[in-house]
UniProtKB/TrEMBL annotation, chain A:
Coiled coil: none annotated. This is Putative sugar-binding periplasmic protein. Signal peptide: none annotated. Transmembrane segments: none annotated. Belongs to the bacterial solute-binding protein 1 family. The lineage of its organism: Bacteria, Pseudomonadati, Atribacterota, Atribacteria, Atribacterales.
Automatic annotation (TrEMBL), chain B:
Pfam families: BPD_transp_1. It is found in: Cell membrane. The chain crosses the membrane at residues 20-39, 87-108, 120-140, 169-191, 211-236, 243-267, 273-295. GO terms for cellular component: plasma membrane. Residues 83-294 form the ABC transmembrane type-1 domain. This is L-arabinose transport system permease protein AraP. It comes from the Bacteria. Belongs to the binding-protein-dependent transport system permease family. It comes from Atribacter laminatus. The gene is araP_2. One of its GO terms (biological process) is transmembrane transport. The keyword Transport applies. Keywords: Cell membrane, Membrane, Transmembrane, Transmembrane helix, Transport. It is a multi-pass membrane protein.
């Protein structure tokens, strides 16, 4: 009797522990990079999906850099952290080639999205990811009130820009004319990409992504040495500091300008006091959509497809209303945007939308690029070393 | 063979069998999770991407890489490469934490309510290194860091210490002294507690000065503790990763890079598992070089 009791207890325990694992749970897990205020602006979109479909959705925050190390191992084991994951385009394309990502060609209509925005997500003509809202990196943000108070004007050419920085340097209480956001490293790469486009043109920018031009080529060196390093040597840029901390200091008047993506409009107290200008002569702007994909190992493929389709259509309409985001879905009415974002959308007009350089190349280059730019910011005289190191990543 | 010896042999075999059965689960787990990965890593370090045996080619490639050993750095300044950086950690961090731990243990020995001081110093040790890294990053910030606040009070100019190649690595090394000193202090405290008071009383009666007592009694009797502190600290310095990853990510320009971080870059940024295995093997060899004397010394004590 005692033996039978033990068998029943053990069997029940196994059943109790094992059942939840094998039970079909229809809820979904979405993984994205946002936390804090950015996450707060995204959660209502998921909530709307839950209300419409009755499917529960959980959101987890993981940085793209961490996902790039976690996911390949998970995929190799044919499992996944989430049912729908936001990740950079290079990663989606790379993993799609290995068969780890679901083909979503039939889930969305490509013509409904900004032309070219899905190009980096295709393998052999099939679509493996979608574009959610995007952020444009338009240039140097400033407070209108700060410019008015100090009688500053938006520059029309390079000389004007240098003169503006020199004038800002003389303003009492200012740490440096331009704030240098840091942390992981991407804020510096955004500034550098803008300089490459402004002074090298969109073709050179594309050629660097394709590596049909070397990083230590004379044309590239000219931009780094005569434009970026010149300003760094004059201490027009502040020391690289954690970017959210710098954001606060810039807003409080410790810096005059802050180069940042359009999400900044959702991160300041008074977006109506914001304005932005690109480097004079810039023909293209980096427009970086948040890409998302469904791993081949999701337990809920149909629900995951429903959520993806919702996010990239209705979801975008809801998201842009929160501020700081621009839709890649062409059917989002302009009235849905807050005023400041409408202005940002207008900056894009007449300019070529470019992919984010380091997000597109990805992998080792990305971390090396960030690290070398941190070095350049404090050692601008080492331009040659920096460019040689970047080139060596491709040589390897 | 007589009945007595046959029975004794059977009993001994039975005992051995019991021992084997008892030991087997642990042995199987060790083979799967310890021995196999170690041997696989070792094998991978000698093979190419297509699994061909290439002998020391990967080692030559890794050790001649600027990321691991940067010859130019020795004449032009940081970065020196991950391997020399690890040795710098040992060279600076080890004597500092060992000495500070010993001094603090001696100072607090007879102090009333010493557990308050000991606990506050040991706090650094229980802080997760990832949090420690974040704290260090902010401590050295130009605008908000406490180090700069103190320096500015003394009339020096503030700057972000982790942003410059000349100061990034040293900032982390000195910063981590705070995080690690609690370990040596606690080990030495327990060692001090085991030294009989009579030794000190006899020395005092003979007219020995505190200085002499410290060097002739305390330090020699703490020899075993020192071996433990040095060994464990070197091991920590060899495998240091989380703190550097969070505080500087090995930058700027690789100026604070270390071996374990470079292994991570090889494995998870470049997906070059051969190079990562080379670093893992080198770290394992260095670790063995440090731990074998410790094991020998503890075995000697048991005998």
């Amino acid at each position: 009797m005692k033996f039978i009791t033990w068998i029943v207890v053990i069997f029940s325990a196994i059943l109790f522990i094992g059942l939840p694992v094998y039970s079909q749970d229809s809820s979904l897990t979405v993984i994205g990079p946002w936390s804090g205020g950015e996450m707060d602006a995204f959660l209502p979109v998921l909530k709307a999906f839950e209300e419409e479909t009755g499917i529960k959705v959980e959101f987890l925050t993981y940085r793209a850099e961490d996902l790039s190390t976690l996911l390949p191992a998970q995929f190799t084991a044919e499992s996944t952290l989430g049912d729908l994951i936001f990740m950079q385009s290079w990663f989606i394309q790379d993993q799609a080639k290995k068969g780890h990502i679901m083909d979503i060609s039939a889930v969305i209509t490509e013509d409904d999205f900004i032309p070219g925005s899905l190009d980096g997500l295709k393998v052999d003509g099939k679509l493996y990811g979608a574009a959610y809202t995007g952020k444009v990196k338009p240039g140097f943000w400033f407070r209108k009130s700060f410019f008015e108070k100090n009688q500053l004007t938006v520059p029309n050419n390079w000389e004007d820009f240098q003169a503006l920085l020199e004038k800002m340097k003389g303003i009492e209480g200012i740490s440096a004319p331009i704030a240098s956001g840091n942390g992981v490293g991407w804020p510096l790469s955004d500034i550098t990409e803008h300089f490459i486009v402004a002074f090298g043109g969109t073709e050179l920018f594309h050629n660097l992504i394709n590596h049909s031009i070397h990083w230590n080529d004379a044309k590239v060196k000219e931009i780094f040495e005569n434009r970026l390093a010149v300003l760094l040597k004059e201490n027009y840029f502040g020391e690289p500091s954690e970017w959210t901390m710098v954001l606060e200091k810039w807003w409080n008047g410790d810096y005059g300008l802050f180069f940042m993506g359009s999400w900044i409009t959702g991160m300041v107290d008074d977006p109506s006091d914001l304005s932005v200008f690109s480097l004079p002569g810039t023909q293209g702007l980096v427009f970086a959509p948040d890409y998302l994909f469904i791993p081949a190992y999701t337990q809920n493929p149909e629900n995951a497809k429903k959520l993806l389709a919702f996010l990239v259509t209705q979801g975008q309409e809801l998201q842009v209303q929160q501020g700081g985001h621009l839709a890649t879905y062409l059917n989002v009415p302009i009235e849905f945007y807050p005023e400041v974002d409408r202005n940002v959308a207008q900056i894009l007009e007449g300019k070529m939308a470019l992919p984010d350089l380091d997000d597109t190349i990805g992998g080792e280059f990305q971390s090396k690029f960030w690290d070398q730019l941190k070095l350049l910011w404090v050692k601008p005289e080492q331009v040659d070393d920096v460019l040689d190191t970047l080139e060596s990543v491709f040589e390897q | 063979m007589d009945l007595f010896h046959r029975r004794k042999r059977r009993k001994s075999l039975k005992t051995t069998l019991h021992q084997i059965v008892f030991f087997l689960p642990a042995l199987i787990l060790m083979i799967i999770f310890l021995l196999y990965p170690v041997l696989n890593t070792l094998w991978t370090s000698f093979t190419s991407e297509d699994h061909q045996f290439v002998f020391l080619d990967n080692y030559k490639k890794v050790l001649s890489s600027k990321d691991v050993f940067n010859q130019k750095g020795f004449t032009q300044g940081f970065p020196l490469g991950a391997l020399p950086h690890n040795f710098l950690w040992i060279l600076i961090h080890l004597p500092l934490t060992t000495f500070l731990g010993l001094v603090l243990a001696v100072l607090f020995k007879d102090l009333k309510y010493n557990y308050i001081f000991k606990s506050s110093i040991f706090l650094g040790m229980v802080t997760p290194m990832v949090i420690g890294g974040v704290i260090l990053r902010f401590i050295y910030e130009k605008e908000v860091g406490i180090i700069n606040a103190i320096l500015e009070l003394l009339g020096f100019q503030a700057f972000t210490w982790t942003a410059y190649p000349e100061t990034a690595l040293l900032s982390l090394i000195f910063g981590s002294v705070w995080l690690w000193t609690g370990f040596s202090m606690i080990i030495y405290s327990s060692g001090l507690g085991n030294i009989p008071k009579e030794y000190y009383e006899a020395a005092a009666l003979d007219g020995a000065t505190p200085f002499v007592i410290f060097f002739r009694i305390t330090i020699p009797l703490l020899k075993q503790m020192t071996v433990v502190v040095i060994t464990m600290t070197i091991l920590w310095e060899l495998k240091i990763f989380d703190l550097v990853y969070v505080a500087t990510m090995g930058g700027p320009g690789g100026a604070s890079n270390v071996m374990a971080l470079q292994m991570y870059f090889y494995a998870f940024r470049q997906f070059n598992f051969q190079n990562a295995s080379v670093i893992a093997t080198l770290l394992m060899l260095l670790t063995l070089f440090v731990t074998i004397p410790l094991i020998k010394s503890s075995l000697g004590e048991e005998r």
